Write the structure tokens for this entry.
Amino acid sequence: MSEAKVAQKGPFPVDVEAGKRYAWCACGQSATQPFCDGSHKTTDFNPVMYQAEETKTLYFCGCKQTGGQPLCDGSHSSL
Ligand code: FES
């Protein structure tokens, strides 16, 4: 399995809406971070779907190394 590209060494804050589904980019190649734009087709990765339960600000992982996909778990601080 290839390694995910580090899109950004830090999370992307996103104001999500309750009930809406989001496709988080797992490969790091998307031009529309932190979300999937289909660029993963040339990689071994697939996007990770996330359904927001409430309307609030979430921090989506930008380094793609998180253990808690799709959200930031602080892994970027050890890169
Ligand atoms: Fe990265 Fe789709 S573009 S998972």
Notes: The pocket of FE2/S2 (inorganic) cluster is lined by residues 25-27, 29-30, 36-40, 45, 47 (CB under 6 Å). Strands lie at 12-16, 21-24, 48-51, 56-60. The chain has one domain: 12-78.
